[in-house]
């Protein structure tokens, strides 16, 4: 049960990251650069 919950969380995080990266690409390179320097 715990493992399934972790997998679901990872899938949700992956989808959210995908959306964020897509939005950053759509907005433009400067936003992506800012996101990169924040890490």
Explain how this protein is built:
The chain has 39 residues and is mainly α. It has one domain (8-37). The chain has two helices and no strands. Helix 1 (2-27) packs across helix 2 (29-38).
- Give the low-pLDDT segments: none
- Radius of gyration over C-alpha positions, nearest whole angstrom: 14 Å
- Average pLDDT level: 77
Structural class: mainly alpha
Q: Main beta sheet, described?
A: none
**What is the first-to-last residue Cα distance?**
32 Å
Residue share in β-strands: under 5%
Quick one: how many beta strands? 0
Shape, please?
Answer: elongated
**Into which percent range does the helicity of residues fall?**
over 70%
The tally of domains stands at 1
- Count of alpha/pi helices: 2
Query: H/E series, N to C?
Result: HH
Outline the fold blueprint.
Blueprint: H1 2-27, H2 29-38
Provide a quick synopsis of the model.
The protein has helices spanning 2-27, 29-38. By secondary structure, it is mainly α.
List keywords for this structure.
single chain, membrane, elongated, transmembrane, mainly alpha, transmembrane helix, 39 residues
């Amino acid at each position: 049960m715990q493992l399934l919950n972790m997998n679901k969380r990872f899938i949700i995080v992956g989808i959210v990251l995908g959306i964020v990266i897509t939005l950053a690409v759509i907005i433009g390179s400067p936003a992506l650069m800012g996101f990169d320097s924040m890490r």
